[in-house]
Task: structure prediction
Amino acid sequence: MRFVLILLMAVAGFARAAEPDLLEPDKAFRFGARLKDAGSIEVRYEIAPGYYMYRDKFQFALAPAGAKLGAAQLPAGKKHRDEFFGEVETFRGSLSIVLPFELADSSVPAMQLTVVSQGCADIGVCYVPHEQKAELRLASLSSDAASGLFSGAGSSADDTLIARVFEGGFWLVILSFFGFGLLLAFTPCVLPMVPILSSVIVGARQPMTKSRGFGLAIVYVLGMAVTYAIAGIAAGLSGAMLAVALQNPWVLGAFAMVFVALALAMFGVYELQLPVALQYRLANASNRFQGGHTLGVFVMGVLSALILGPCVAAPLAGALLYIGQSRDVMLGGSALFAMALGMGVPLLAVGASAGALLPKAGPWMETVKRGFGMVLLGMAIYLVSPFLPVSVQMLAWAALLIVTAITLRAIDRLPPNAHGFQRFSKGLGIIALLAGLAYLVGALSGGRDVLQPLSGLRVTDSGHAAGETPFERVNTVAELDARVRAAAGRTVMLDFYADWCVSCKEMERYTFSDSRVRARLSEMVLLQADVTANTVDHAALLKRFRLFGPPGIIFFDRDGREIPGLRVIGFQAADRFVAVLDQALAFRR
Amino acid sequence: MKTRTFAVFAIVAGLSAAGGVAYYLHSPGGGAGMDAGEVVGRVLAAPLADIKGGSQRIGQWRGRVLVINYWATWCAPCREEIPMFVRLQERYGDRGLQFVGIAIDQPGKVAEFAAEFSVNYPLLIAGVDSLELLRQAGNRAGVLPYTLVIDRKGNLVSREPGGLKEARLERLLQPLL
Result:
């Protein structure tokens, strides 16, 4: 275990050493421009923390010749004394400049804006005057001025909310991520970690005090947080599909086994404890220092973070994208660390209440433990489900539900004077029993849909079985280019998919099946890159779009160029997706 | 349990190491660009304006130990090291050391600066094409200050992005003088 920790530190150290001290100017001074209205352009800069730009060094130029720029309206900068120039004004953070312009010829379709700027970094270097260009489409003004898209120099693909968050100050970013983690804590991804932590704490031999429970919870959460920070940095630096690495059947299978083992302990099959010899040595050790158990808890935290990583991959994608692009490893790592801390808050509550939330003994405690055990088994099935045939998954769910029902005394007769709780749990038990039976029947009758176990029984199935969305498969960058070219004149949607990608499947099942979505999709050329196999070609495809893995939906306009600002990362319900599709279809350069 | 733990960490560690190495290989100055000889040849041959309106080539100082410093008057960190350059030029000038400043700036400002800080070595003005050369010389991000150290035979001894400390520059120069 100690070796593992040393390894971790070495990894972190290496990541730091390989990190450059300086951003490329395009990343230090992120540039975007849009038409604000018929007579002015808005230029925006997002200046990375630790960098600044000179107010009096901007130069603007507009082409074609018929377009004339008025005086640029720059906000007041921060003044400071310069020994050579006297008073100098500089900008930090977000900067918005308004450029009035006049256009002699109204038939011009687009203008090209060139901005030359000068800036420096606090670490003691400046950049040579830097030129950035943007194309401003006058047509876009008439169609939808309100949502005018910023067109930037290459790196404007950070459309996700999370990437936007990064443009705030350092502490704002950290705070946002903490809140974000807090929200994630209540998703099915993270809630199952509560019983694991409880089992770890309940499994501890020493009498559990509140402070010790809280301490262990902190250690566990720190384990999680450190892992997230490192994994985020690693993914950012390598640009690799970290989620894929973790979605290997062996890794997931191993974790499922761990869950099963923990569940069995919850059912009281055996006591969760270490071999006697080891226990003796640990007890000796912990008399001297508070080490042994704490380290185990830390490692549990690390492990659970690794399991959950793929589960929260979609919301992470934006953050990882940003880290990968900006190479701002410090900020990225800290943000993910804060997010994990947010995710850990409910766990801390459980830990702190070691005495309260988890009663010490009695039948109530047994029920709670059995409930946790069931959740753990459910997690285990969920984890390996991408690799199991549907019928096997259904059998597994059937077994779990029926056993749960029996434990809830679904078929035991209620005593005449049964109190509310007994009646309630019998009710739950009967629901579980019926659902379990449905799965059993479904599995045996060749059902093919885990969410509709009995669908295999339907005799004829008109209407609904309208079939899957008719995607054409693309596997390589060359294939993609060819298809996009061939689609000239039509809008193209490219969907990144993988068998293990849960939100991709949700998208398919709930969103693509919506009739409004279907109507709009029928007007587009639909391409799908199934990157389940994760070949070199697949990696190249993902890299081209700066994605770390599915989910990811990308739109191309009628000329075959990606529509900026319109990516869909993660699950999106039909209502919102319809709006995105409308924008994609209406998009004109 | 222990071996599985290890396997997972091995994956993470491997990815991160691979990423780090890949990044290092692609990072600015990490081997990209022209080879050193070509860089020196082109830097020495490029015609540059001086502050009096004439044209100069750095090649005229070939045979001396050259410290070529890219800078600008508006670049505070650049200005900070110039008094140190002046000092070293004075100390080692007769042992064959030659500083040359290339300013990414307006000639008027440079002349003003040279007078105010009594710069005792030639200051030239960079045009647009020498910016391109600066990038090809391994300074892809276009960082200032940026300093090249070239020995008497015309070999590129060091490229130094960012501010230089006197001790470091002395250490670089001593064996060459």
